[in-house]
Amino acid sequence: MKIESTLTCPSCGHKSIEAMPTNACQFFYDCGGCGTRLKPKPGDCCVFCSYGTVPCPPVQESGKGVFCS
Ligand SMILES: [Zn+2]
Asked: Which of 8, 10, 58, 62 could pair with 66 in a Cys bridge, judged by C-beta atoms 3.0 to 4.6 Å apart?
């Protein structure tokens, strides 16, 4: 399982490698570039699923298309 994901800010394009929590979803992420508070897109469970390069660990574990709560 991958626990590191590169988050890309949709506002400024700032990229940041972040370690994901393995047993929880992260709903908010403050961009290190412009300070925008990122939230998951509709239908996504967390910021990593919306803006990261790797789905969050609960999604990796349960398979594609299944979201953590
Ligand atoms: Zn930003």
From this structure: 62
CA of 30 to the centre of ligand 1 (A): 8
Q: What's the CA-to-centroid distance between 48 and ligand 1, angstroms?
A: 15
pLDDT in tens, the chain (69 residues): 889 999 999 999 999 999 998 887 889 999 999 999 999 999 888 999 999 999 888 888 876 555 555
Is residue 14 within 8 Å of 31, Cβ to Cβ?
Answer: yes
Q: How far is the CA of 36 from the centre of ligand 1 (A)?
A: 5
